[in-house]
Amino acid sequence: xxxxxxCVFGTLLLSLLTIVSVKWAGIRGFDNSKPRxxxxxxxxxxxxxxGAHQNGLEAFPFFAFAVLLAxxxxxxxxLIDELAVLFLIVRIAYxxxxxxxxxxxxxxxxxxxxxxxxxxxxxxxxxxxxxx
Length: 132
Hints:
The chain has helices at residues 3-25, 44-72, 77-99, 103-126. The protein is mainly α. The protein has a single domain, classed as Membrane associated eicosanoid/glutathione metabolism-like domain (Four Helix Bundle (Hemerythrin (Met), subunit A)), CATH 1.20.120. The chain starts with a helix and ends in a 6-residue tail after the last helix. It holds the Pfam family MAPEG. The chain crosses the membrane at residues 82-101, 107-126. This is Putative MAPEG superfamily protein.
């Protein structure tokens, strides 16, 4: 497996760990028989963690598709790997800024992550213009 493919897996795990960590931290208030109980997410940190989790699930398909498409269409593998690692780092920072209630920085990081996804997606189309 390539580094980029491991980053796809890491991005999925990050999304899951974002919500699991809050459920474990609030184990006394969390009822597993009602995992979507809105009362559990009344706490601001839990609510923001849920938002970060949901955004991670929303961002995941485009990232996974972009990586797989770029690799399938024989984009420059090293650049795909580097951009995928950068995307994962940006997503980790995004989760921390979301939970830490830093909306401006969070939006900037989201935009950077989206731009990285577009770059990965377009790599096969521009590979002829890139230096070897």
